[in-house]
Amino acid sequence: MTARPLIALLSALCATAIAVAEPVDAEQDPIPVPVENPRRHADTDQPEKPGTPDATPAEEAKEEEPPPDPPPPAPDEAALARCETELRALGAVFEREDAIDGPGACGLAASYQVSQIVTGVSLAPATEMRCATALATARWISTVVRPAAHVFGDEVRLTGIRHASTYVCRTRNSQPGAKMSEHALGNAIDIRRFEFDGHDPLEIKPRKRTGSREESFQKAVQAGACLHFTTVLGPGSDAFHDDHIHLDLASRTRGYRLCQ
Q1: What residues are paired with 190 via a beta bridge?
Q2: pLDDT tens readout for residues 239-248
Q3: CA-to-CA distance for 113 and 90, rounded, in angstroms?
Q4: Where are the alpha helices (DSSP H) in 116-189?
Q5: pTM
Q6: The total number of structural domains that make up the chain
């Protein structure tokens, strides 16, 4: 082979080698790069949990309801036994009834129905009150009311007490927004009328400066009630108490008593 053809052949071989060695333009012919599956590490083997359904209006209302009122506290049986013994000694006739679980703060742990408050003196209509309230009433009748009745004559005898209310779940004087009445706790009794053998019944009413024996009796029993009760309100106190004497056992600071 001559030199010229040999040189041509070598030149062709060098051009082919250079073409093979040149890098590929990535923009024109990119090499695919493996991309990791984003779900590879996800918890795809577990079924998707269903979403929590919206609460129904009834369920929402139930969730917003306040908790139920607590039941009345358990009664002090030892204290009640002592109270009942004293009531019997004064001649009271009574029955212990079930607890009253009223709404909110209303109610009492043990309720008493008293038909005779002391020997020979009835109490009507039916009552619902604490034993302590019944005992305070019995002591008042025995030590204050009976002796005061002698103003009508030695032959006159007290035979009955008529009340306007004992337990009632309400506010003071039934006024909206007022504090709860002691009636709502069984701590109160409203006296409306006294009945006698040998004298007409005496209704509670304003008797200012009449100078009568009826006025003297009413003033005496109203004032004397504060020896046994912590609150006494009657004619002369306010318009709410012109037709009865309200008696209760409200607990106050330093044993203060409200007598009007």
Answers
A1: 165, 246
A2: 899 999 999 9
A3: 16
A4: 131-140, 146-148
A5: 0.72
A6: 1
